[in-house]
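Before the break, one more example. Copy the sequence into your notebook; we will annotate it together after we see the structure.
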Amino acid sequence: MEYFTTVEMSEKWNITSRRIGVLCAEGRIAGAIKKGKTWLIPSDTKKPADARFKKNTK
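Here is what the structure looks like once it is written out:
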């Protein structure tokens, strides 16, 4: 399995690496593991949904 760092994922997902670190710490990115000070994220992980918005389920 290939892993990306927060910097590499920030380019892919178009959000800051700091925000990705926060999402990892909150457990919102599936499969993310911490190796030392670096978060490693599986390459096939999908970007988590924005928690500020709720989906309409009408």
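The chain is about 30% helix and 15% strand. Residues 32 and 41 are 5 Å apart (CA to CA). Try to locate both features in your own notes.
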